[in-house]
Amino acid sequence: MKKTRFILLAFLVSFSTIIAQEEKPKEVQKGHYNISKFKQLNEEFATPNMYRTAAGAPGKNYYQQRADYKIDVVLDDKNQKLFGNETITYYNNSPDVLEYLWVQLEQNRSKPNSLGDAAENGGPSFGYQPQKYVAEFMGKPFQGGFNIESLTDSKGKNLKSTINFTMMRIDLDTPLQPGASFSFNIKWWYHINNYMIDRGRSGYEHFPKDGNNLYIIAQFFPRMAVYNDVEGWQNMQFWGRGEFTLPFGNYDVTITTPSDHILDATGVLQNPKEVFTPTEYNRYIAASTSFDKPIIIVTQAEATEKEKHFSEKTKTWKFKAENVRDFAFSSSRKFIYDMQAVKIGGKTVMAVSLYPKEGNPLWEEYSTKVVAHTLKSYSNRLFDYPYPKAISVNADQQGMEYPMICWNFGRCNEDGTYSPQTRRGMIGVIVHEVGHNFFPMIVNSDERQWTWMDEGLNTFTQLLAQEEFEKDFPSRGYPKNVVEYMSGDQNYITPIMTQSESIFNFSSNAYAKPAAGLYMLREFIMGHELFDHAFKTYANRWKFKHPTPEDFFRTMEDASAVDLDWFWRGWFYTTNVNDIGIKSVKKYYVTDIVPKRIQNMTRSNRGSTSTPPQMVYLVAEDHEDVTEMMINTKNPTEEIKLLDDYLTEHFSKEERAALENPTYFYEVKFEKPGGLVMPILVDYIFEDGSKISHNYPAEVWRLNDHEVIKLIPSTKPIKEIIIDSREITADINKENNYWPKKESISKLQEFKAKQ
Q1: Segment 234-255, tens digit of pLDDT
Q2: With CB atoms counted within 10 Å of each terminal CB, which end of the chain scores lower, N or C?
Q3: What is the side-by-side strand order in the sheet with 581-591?
């Protein structure tokens, strides 16, 4: 009776459950968009068109504007002013009719009470130089900015214009038709800033001991803005961080300075006999054929003597430059001057250095040598350097680049000594700034928008050049160097694809992280051969043109046949981090005894008690079937008769001897707490000390974004498993990178030391 009641009760419970399920409406699962991290970037990318192809190359109707300049400037050393007069001829190569032109006035960022200052945010500085304190708090701010005296067309007629902070719109009486050009004249002057006090990317440095100034002059003339197929006029204001975007053109420039100054600039000097003494001129000519060492044109003794006298006379330097996007120069009576010839692709390029005695002996020993090395390294990797020279100027606390010329920090102590850090910093900044001749002076990306396109690509190429220059040279572009940044507070981290002015950590975001990403692509995602070919293809497609981020991304895939959308999305468009760990490791035995769970499953499926077919089974050592297996066999890893019969039947004796017979099987489960997908770089270390390494591609995560399982057969037991032993995946958490679990990451260092 009790049994009957129980059966009835069970039936009623089951029946009521069925009724309840029928009455309760079935919950419909909500759908979702494609959330796969391997989703293509079609929605993020601009649509390909006749100007820019889907392959990442310039299209058949690609165009770019051109601006030629005729400039005359006078450097007033006594009053630290610069006076200029220029004629700009602007060529409209676009298919559009232009009603107005936009001209950049970056010096206006230094105007008193400028919008740039008003947009700054922050409290007091840690300390103030007296001059800076007076300027900021005692009513005497620096009187910077362009003072435009006249703006006329080629016939002398005044042009209508509107100045908006650092941009000037010139309204045309007659719209500029496609294929037409327009010439106009601007006369201006401005106060040159002491960049040691007022900061800035150019200006002058004053030397109180001898009363001299060292000038690094850039953004010194009104410059045409870019008009292109992507944005129309790129007239974003210059707030100070996002740098410059400029059209290419030809320059004819004269610069009048005190007669005892030494000067060099973008372009080719047209009148060396007029500006050099006979001795200096002979050395200048000799340097053009000196390929083994620099020739000193102005010695330290000669420069030191010049410092003592301030000439009232002037001289004029004449330069011409073809197909450049900008012009800059540096001038001082303090300059030591040396040059060396470098053979690049069958032509001679001059490596040049200008530096005061405060930079010696460091600069005389290294600067020109580093310039020459950089030109060779970048040319081998990208394309032959096309310009006639590259100049490195020693300017304290500076690191800035322009076509053919750059300013670089690195000073010695008063007794001429210098630390290893100073030496490395000076070499690094020279490689970096000279390298900028390629990105963005030639591969002319929009710095105002995308800082990473010049800084990141250049930092990566710099890293490779420094590796060639000196073993173990420290570089910020290695993946391990961005781990701390990527592990930081997400409230203060932005994606790489962020406009320059909105980036929190500028150095890490725009320099180090993009470079680290390219390093990872080259080292283990694409490999050297595919990456190098694609990177070179991008550089050659877009030299002397204006590429966008999509052009870079598309070209890298087009030239390599590697789908990288997952990488661009994760590394460039998000702030996700890489954290891959070992979740568990199981050891399996091989046997021909049918495990009980398989027997039960087979009977259930067949509806009978027949014996399952003979097979070879892998059984986990921590599974209950191992107990049964141990009872039936003395040694669970002994040779299996079933497998031996199969091998004898299908393979010859020689073939069997060549086959490896694994006796150990490991199921390794990898987890991914981090948001990035990334290849799994893993080392399996055996008890005899040997090792095998695997690179499981990122696609291993495509169907499971949380866990990946790999079965590792082996003829010998595994002692350790280590993820990313070379620290090249920017993995932010090393604690889960080991099996057996390590208490300290010191084990990683111990492992690396043995390699």
Answers
A1: 999 999 889 999 999 999 999 9
A2: N
A3: 617-620, 581-591, 664-671, 707-714
Q: Which residues pair with residue 675 across a beta bridge?
A: none
Token pair recorded at residue 291: 């390929």
The residue among 25 and 94 whose pLDDT is bigger is 94
pLDDT at 2: 40
Q: What is the DSSP letter of 559?
A: T
- Superfamily of 450-575 according to CATH: Neutral Protease Domain 2 (1.10.390.10)
Reported as a single tens digit per residue, the pLDDT across 563-594 is: 999 999 999 999 999 999 999 999 887 776 66
Given a cut of 80, whether residue 472 has pLDDT beyond it is yes
Q: 130, 265, 205: which is closest to 396 by C-alpha?
A: 205
Count of other CB atoms within 10 angstroms of residue 206: 15
CA distances from 582 to 672, 702, 735, 743, 744 (A): 9, 18, 10, 14, 15
According to DSSP, residue 48 is labeled P
Question: Dmax over Cα atoms in the chain, in whole Å?
Answer: 127
At 508 the pLDDT is: 96
Q: Indicate the fold that domain 65-120+128-247 takes in CATH.
A: Immunoglobulin-like (2.60.40)
Structure tokens given for 253: 């420039």
DSSP summary character for residue 399: E
List of residues 6+ apart from 573 with CB closer than 8 A: 44, 495, 496, 497
Instruction: Tell how strand 314-324 and strand 336-344 pair up.
Output: unpaired
The answer to whether domain 65-120+128-247 and domain 663-754 are alike in fold is yes
For residue 323, report the phi and psi dihedrals to the nearest 5 degrees.
55, 55
Give the pLDDT score at 691: 95
Could you tell me if 577 and 481 are in contact, meaning their C-beta atoms sit under 8 angstroms apart?
no
CA–CA dist 600, 606 (Å, integer): 10
Asked if 249 and 67 count as a contact pair (C-beta separation under 8 A), the reply is yes
Prior bond to 247 cis, omega within 30? no
Q: Which residues make beta-bridge pairs with 248?
A: 66
Query: 86-119: per-residue pLDDT in tens?
Result: 999 999 999 999 999 999 999 999 998 888 777 7
Local structure of 447: helix, strand or coil: coil
Provide CB contacts within 8 A for 188, sequence distance 6+.
Answer: 83, 84, 85, 146, 147, 148, 149, 221, 222
Multiple choice CATH, 663-754, 2.60.40, 2.60.420, 1.10.10, 3.30.70: 2.60.40
> In the chain, where are the structural domains located?
65-120+128-247, 450-575, 591-658, 663-754
Enter the tokens of residue 741: 């679990």
Q: Is the pLDDT score of 11 beyond 80? A: no
